[in-house]
């Protein structure tokens, strides 16, 4: 599904290299987790993959379904099936959540040459999916993420994911700022979306999210590279001993 | 203060091409009074403080600057609205295109037809304009009261079932129109007044509105895409106790527009809202000048002005809230904001508060900013193409002003216009 080869990225405005030859392959239908200490480049990886400004790719490639997505505009990557659940979902005053969702769904359909969703059909689908995530009608009506609690914002991200039905989902520290109940709800939403044709890359600091979203593969990232790869037990090791041991071991 | 020779000359040069229209004695008296006021003030010049951000040259020149006609396939705004339509072409009333001027609870007559020596408009024509000349002079309004060739006089005694729509057409490249409307809402009456169209190559318009106790006045205006037109408009309103005044203007393009709105809250518990959404592209200059005077207890006023500017367009806002001594419990709010879509566009704002009462809540704010890149990326990351995402954010920016329109159908009509404009920008 996603093959990242020797990815090198620096900040556009600063002479600072963040990713230093990162290699990672996420197979179709699998859930991969990336763990790593602060400053290891995890969020940069998610931003670079989704096409945010401010980063310069100095080498390598990121192939999704045979195409290098690094040459695409952010909206093209989205239409091709990439989705980033933001660590800090953005508030957009004045744009209704429903308008936002419908515009996004139809823009992607249009880009793929598919027919747009009618408003009745859209309403039906969004209501059903919102209900599963305990998102009430009021949250759908309000401006995008404005006045939402931390948990509501993250649930809203998962709702967008459910509506857009991407192939490759990146979750950037989706557990940050969530209490246990909110995290469970979000994890259930993600698990409901797990399928044979859909891959996930779950970026997190802590192992606790992985108790709820069980990964197939766990990677440890440090200093802009993947330094160790293993099964779910690797996450438990981090939880128990911290990153220091692993980093010492690979150094 | 004696006028400078330059100002005297400029004023007389403009007056040379004008003559006072004939009419009944009271109207002639009002016109002569206005002419005297104008001569005492002189027309605005570049050095005037109140015209610091807007060059009055083309608005006061003896000759009108030629304005090319704007051809469009697009149907006129409010076309689907059940309304009483009154049409002016280059400032001339078009009877054939207008509806019958009669209706339940409303009396409408043309200024040019008024012959009676006794008329209700006698107490208002030029009177509200005169009140609005202090403390700041508005010479173009005095010129209008003196020389307006036509307009409508509307008296409302009840709740009018449908809006009155003044539609203006611009069909001559050199038309120079001066229209003066007077609206009087009697106690408890309610009216929605719609205005649309570019009117003329140069347009000078005054609207005087008396809103009696408990009366409600809604005003929604669009100033169209007719790019080369120039306009100077004034609204003078006086509000009685528990009355409501709401005015919204959508402006898209126009090389020169100056909209002044002067409101006096004279009865307790009155509410006045003035809002404007403007979209300028290229050779565009738009000026909103607002002056709201609180002279009664427990009144509320809101000024909400939003401007989206690109390709070197200029937006101006001069807004003032004056709270007189004794106008306690005043609630005054003023916001003016611009969204600058490039580095060449500019927004000039002069917000002012002047307060002589001690128990009031007044706030004002003014901002200029670019499009929110974080929000833009968020939208794009969900698959919304950049230009469409920008449009969404522009609409969101204008929403606070557009939401001032109470009637949902009319608000949708305005939103539709706004979206059409944005789409055309994309080509």
From TrEMBL, chain A:
<dbReference type="InterPro" id="IPR027417">
    <property type="entry name" value="P-loop_NTPase"/>
</dbReference>
<feature type="domain" description="ABC transporter">
    <location>
        <begin position="2"/>
        <end position="248"/>
    </location>
</feature>
<dbReference type="GO" id="GO:0016887">
    <property type="term" value="F:ATP hydrolysis activity"/>
</dbReference>
<dbReference type="InterPro" id="IPR010230">
    <property type="entry name" value="FeS-cluster_ATPase_SufC"/>
</dbReference>
<protein>
    <submittedName>
        <fullName>Fe-S cluster assembly ATPase SufC</fullName>
    </submittedName>
</protein>
<dbReference type="InterPro" id="IPR003593">
    <property type="entry name" value="AAA+_ATPase"/>
</dbReference>
<keyword id="KW-0547">Nucleotide-binding</keyword>
<dbReference type="GO" id="GO:0005524">
    <property type="term" value="F:ATP binding"/>
</dbReference>
<dbReference type="Pfam" id="PF00005">
    <property type="entry name" value="ABC_tran"/>
</dbReference>
<comment type="similarity">
    <text>Belongs to the ABC transporter superfamily. Ycf16 family.</text>
</comment>
<dbReference type="InterPro" id="IPR003439">
    <property type="entry name" value="ABC_transporter-like_ATP-bd"/>
</dbReference>
<keyword id="KW-0067">ATP-binding</keyword>
<dbReference type="InterPro" id="IPR017871">
    <property type="entry name" value="ABC_transporter-like_CS"/>
</dbReference>
UniProtKB/TrEMBL annotation, chain B:
<dbReference type="Pfam" id="PF19295">
    <property type="entry name" value="SufBD_N"/>
</dbReference>
<protein>
    <submittedName>
        <fullName>Fe-S cluster assembly protein SufD</fullName>
    </submittedName>
</protein>
<dbReference type="InterPro" id="IPR055346">
    <property type="entry name" value="Fe-S_cluster_assembly_SufBD"/>
</dbReference>
<dbReference type="InterPro" id="IPR045595">
    <property type="entry name" value="SufBD_N"/>
</dbReference>
<dbReference type="InterPro" id="IPR037284">
    <property type="entry name" value="SUF_FeS_clus_asmbl_SufBD_sf"/>
</dbReference>
<dbReference type="InterPro" id="IPR000825">
    <property type="entry name" value="SUF_FeS_clus_asmbl_SufBD_core"/>
</dbReference>
<feature type="domain" description="SUF system FeS cluster assembly SufBD N-terminal">
    <location>
        <begin position="26"/>
        <end position="160"/>
    </location>
</feature>
<dbReference type="Pfam" id="PF01458">
    <property type="entry name" value="SUFBD_core"/>
</dbReference>
<dbReference type="InterPro" id="IPR011542">
    <property type="entry name" value="SUF_FeS_clus_asmbl_SufD"/>
</dbReference>
<feature type="domain" description="SUF system FeS cluster assembly SufBD core">
    <location>
        <begin position="175"/>
        <end position="397"/>
    </location>
</feature>
<dbReference type="GO" id="GO:0016226">
    <property type="term" value="P:iron-sulfur cluster assembly"/>
</dbReference>
<comment type="similarity">
    <text>Belongs to the iron-sulfur cluster assembly SufBD family.</text>
</comment>
């Amino acid at each position: 599904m996603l093959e990242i080869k020797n990815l090198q990225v620096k900040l556009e405005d600063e002479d600072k290299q963040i990713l230093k030859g990162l290699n990672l392959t996420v197979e179709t239908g699998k859930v991969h987790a990336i763990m790593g200490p602060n400053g290891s480049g995890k969020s940069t990886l998610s931003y670079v993959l989704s096409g945010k400004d401010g980063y310069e790719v100095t080498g390598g490639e990121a192939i999704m379904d045979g195409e290098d997505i690094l040459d695409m505009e952010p909206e093209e990557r989205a239409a091709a099936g990439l989705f980033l659940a933001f660590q800090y979902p953005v508030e957009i005053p004045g744009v209704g959540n429903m308008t936002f969702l419908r515009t996004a769904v139809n823009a992607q359909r249009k880009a793929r040459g598919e027919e747009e969703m009618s408003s009745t059909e859209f309403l039906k689908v969004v209501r059903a999916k919102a209900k599963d995530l305990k998102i009430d009608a009021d949250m759908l009506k309000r401006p995008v993420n404005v006045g939402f609690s931390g948990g509501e914002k993250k649930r809203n991200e998962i709702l967008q994911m459910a509506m857009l039905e991407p192939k490759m989902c990146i979750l950037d520290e989706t557990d940050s700022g969530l209490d246990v109940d909110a995290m469970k709800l979000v994890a259930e939403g993600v698990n409901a979306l797990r399928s044979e044709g859909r891959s996930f890359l779950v970026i997190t600091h802590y192992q606790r999210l992985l108790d709820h979203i069980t990964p197939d593969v766990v990677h440890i990232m440090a200093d802009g590279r993947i330094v160790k790869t293993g099964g779910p037990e690797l996450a438990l090791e981090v939880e128990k001993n911290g990153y220091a041991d692993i980093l010492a071991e690979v150094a | 203060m004696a006028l400078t020779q330059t100002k005297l000359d400029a004023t007389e040069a403009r007056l040379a091409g004008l003559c006072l229209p004939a009419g009944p004695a009271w109207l002639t008296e009002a016109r002569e009074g206005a002419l005297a006021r104008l001569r005492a003030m002189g027309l605005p010049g570049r050095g005037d403080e109140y015209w610091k951000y807007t060059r009055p040259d083309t608005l006061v020149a003896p000759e009108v600057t030629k304005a090319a006609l704007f051809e469009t396939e697009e149907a006129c705004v409010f076309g689907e609205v059940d309304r009483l339509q009154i049409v002016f072409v280059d400032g001339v009333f078009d009877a054939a295109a207008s509806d019958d001027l009669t209706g339940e609870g409303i009396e409408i007559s043309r200024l040019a037809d008024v012959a009676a020596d006794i008329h209700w408009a006698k107490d208002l024509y030029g009177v509200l304009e005169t009140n609005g000349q202090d403390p700041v002079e508005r010479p173009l309004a005095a010129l209008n009261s003196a020389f307006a060739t036509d307009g409508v006089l509307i008296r409302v005694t009840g709740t009018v079932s449908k809006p009155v729509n003044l539609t203006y057409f611009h069909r001559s490249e050199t038309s120079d129109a001066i229209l003066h409307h007077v609206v009087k809402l009697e106690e408890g009456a309610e009216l929605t007044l719609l205005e649309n169209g570019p009117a003329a190559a140069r347009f000078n318009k005054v609207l005087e509105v008396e809103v009696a106790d408990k009366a409600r006045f809604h005003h929604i205006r669009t100033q169209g895409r007719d790019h080369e037109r120039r306009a100077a408009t004034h609204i003078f309103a006086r509000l009685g106790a528990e009355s409501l005044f709401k005015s919204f203007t959508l402006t898209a393009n126009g090389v020169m527009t100056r909209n002044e709105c002067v409101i006096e809250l004279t009865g307790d518990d009155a509410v006045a809202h003035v809002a404007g959404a403007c979209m300028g592209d290229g050779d565009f200059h738009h000026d909103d000048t607002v002056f709201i005077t609180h002279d009664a207890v427990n009144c509320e006023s809101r000024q909400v002005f939003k401007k989206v500017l690109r390709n070197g367009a200029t937006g101006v806002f001069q807004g003032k809230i004056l709270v007189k001594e004794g106008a306690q419990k005043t609630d005054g709010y003023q916001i003016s904001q611009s969204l600058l879509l490039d580095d060449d566009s500019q927004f000039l704002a002069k917000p002012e508060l002047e307060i002589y009462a001690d128990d009031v809540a007044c706030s004002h704010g003014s901002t200029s900013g670019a499009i929110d890149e974080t929000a833009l990326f968020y939208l794009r990351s969900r698959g919304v193409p950049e230009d469409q995402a920008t449009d969404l954010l522009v609409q969101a920016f204008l929403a606070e002003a557009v939401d001032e329109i109470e009637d949902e159908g009319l608000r949708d009509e305005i939103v539709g216009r706004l979206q059409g404009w944005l789409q055309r920008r994309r080509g």
